[in-house]
Design a protein that fits this description.
By secondary structure, this protein is mostly helical. It has 11 helices and no strands. Helix 2 crosses helix 7 and helix 5 crosses helix 8.
Length: 208
């Protein structure tokens, strides 16, 4: 809705990105201000989502019947600061893991290869006009949905799964949206190649 409103006012992409960053910072400050006075125990008592996440996480981490293909996010504090501190590692885990050396089993090998492909696409994304791509994403409603949906699912999957087998199943819905984001410039590059080939053909025909 925000993207649609800003586009209707003919706001340029850079300004839209700045507005989103401002809203994000205000939201984080507001969230932290509301919850900063609560202890971890009080926060868990008043938040059903965090209670469920803690139970699921501890069950996956301690129950030996699930096997030993696990990962560790370190010591987690169920406080606003603790969640913010854990969120980057949880998001990276939710998107890219298991790494290839962590998936040397038949059931996880393809997921390890999938993670390597995602890492390659991310590096390509970051080294090919990342600023222009971010402006394109913030100016497009569907791409903004892809970004927000990907980050939310990645955080929830990485934060609660603990088991690689569970992680790759929970994060599955984000993959199509993530691929859309990471391959933003492919059509443009393909289009340029097609145009170049077409122009070359026309020149060649004219020469003949």
């Amino acid at each position: 809705l925000i993207s649609r409103y800003l586009r209707s006012r003919n706001t340029n992409e850079g300004a839209i990105l700045g507005i989103y960053v401002f809203i994000l910072l205000v939201g984080i400050a507001r969230f932290g201000g509301i919850l900063a006075s609560q202890s971890e125990e009080e926060l868990l008592q008043t938040n059903a989502f965090l209670q469920e996440a803690q139970v699921v996480q501890q069950d996956f981490a301690q129950n030996e019947t699930y096997g030993n293909r696990r990962y560790d996010l370190g010591e987690i504090e169920f406080t606003p600061i603790g969640l913010l501190r854990t969120s980057p590692l949880a998001i990276l885990t939710g998107i890219y893991r298991p790494f290839l050396w962590e998936s040397l089993t038949p059931s996880l090998l393809f997921n390890g290869l999938e993670g390597m492909v995602l890492i390659f696409l991310t590096i390509t994304f970051l080294f090919r006009s990342p600023w222009q791509k971010l402006k394109t994403i913030t100016a497009n409603e569907f791409l903004m949905f892809c970004l927000v949906f990907t980050l939310l699912i990645a955080f929830m999957a990485g934060f609660t799964s603990i088991l690689f087998g569970v992680l790759v199943r929970i994060r599955a819905p984000l993959l199509p949206f993530l691929f859309i984001l990471l391959t933003l410039d492919w059509n443009k590059l393909i289009g340029k190649d097609v145009e170049t080939e077409t122009e070359a053909s026309v020149i060649e025909l004219d020469t003949e």
